[in-house]
Amino acid sequence: MARRKFSKEQMISAARDIALQRGAGRVTLEAVAEAIGSTKGAVLHSFPTKSALLQELLAAMCGEWDTRFDEMRSGKSRGVLTSYIKTWREADPQAPSYLEAVAVAKAENPDLLEPVRDAYGRYAQLIEGETGNKMEFLVAWMACEGMVMLDLLGLHRFDEKTKAALFDQLEMMVGVERT
């Protein structure tokens, strides 16, 4: 019987599902192999270490978020923070994000957070470069991140009406015209 081949993307997807469903600490090469119906050896062929798997997982998660942000920003002449808030507002709850990447990295190895720190630094520079009330922009950015973090960590979930009102308020703070 021929062995079925699995792509790196399938393995990364399985690792992400494990992190979401069972917790980031449960992502192992064995768990990924089991999830895709393969062997640990097959996973090791693509990812020689758990750290290598997690690095690629984090890069994929962050890259997907950046893509959604870039698409939001390019659709209309929106400012950085406006696009950032709208990206979160319209995000699929199952879509990867930097916050999810932080949870995965923190559980395994805080050194894996460096690319995420760099990304947040880039977003901070972009936001700080916008014209407008800098303090309101920073408050809106942190409120957006905090709301999503509470939800991601299961610490507090806002009902949809409240969540929409919070996003409305954040958008109002940064001068977004309602469409």
Structure description:
This protein has about 180 residues and is mainly alpha-helical. The chain is built from nine helices and no strands. It has helices spanning about 10-20, 30-35, 40-45, 50-75, 80-90, 100-110, 115-130, 135-150, 160-175. The protein starts with 7 loop residues before the first helix and ends in a 6-residue tail after the last helix.
List keywords for this structure.
single chain, 179 residues, mainly alpha, 9 helices
Quick summary:
The chain is built from 9 helices and no strands. The chain is elongated, with a radius of gyration of 18 Å. The chain has helices at residues 8-22, 29-36, 40-46, 50-75, 80-89, 98-108, 114-128, 134-152, 160-173.
What are the SSEs and their pairings?
Blueprint: H1 8-22, H2 29-36, H3 40-46, H4 50-75, H5 80-89, H6 98-108, H7 114-128, H8 134-152, H9 160-173
Strand content: under 5%
Query: What's the SSE pattern?
Result: HHHHHHHHH
Structure summary, number of beta strands: 0
* Share of residues in helices: 55-70%
> What does the overall shape look like?
elongated
